[in-house]
# Entry
Amino acid sequence: MIRWKNNICYRLPLLAVLALPLGCDNARYPVHGRVVYEDGSPLTEGIVVGEMDKGKTRVMARGDVKSDGAFSWGTKKPGDGAEAGKYRVVVIPRAVSEYEASQGKLPAVDPKFSNPQTSGIEFEVKPGENELKITVARPSLPDPQDAVEPKTGEREADAP
# Structure
């Protein structure tokens, strides 16, 4: 007859469950948010990525933007949260295909928001629930005056 109360197979899982919260320094906390334009309308496709330097390693969290602009960060799997700390945040819109670009379509977000050095977005994840609201700008249309047409009589140099 097996006596479960004195069996090591019974005690080890119990000890592991009790010790887990004490020894877990990589705890993740829920981060939910929404990406909107300055006029309040949502970004409908893209990715929100956060990166944080933790000693010599870089920690990243990401979340797919849904049609209503909502996202949830995950590190190991979608929506599982992010470690506590300060993150540099970027918003990466859906890529514009070559065909779309040839038709004059621009990316959905100003390119500055896709670079951690220029996005200007930082967010600190703290223990507990975290809400990250992001406001982005649409890309500005190219100024037609910036397009320089060659003067009459000028031509491009012949390629070697």
Notes: Residues 44 and 67 are 4 Å apart (CA to CA).
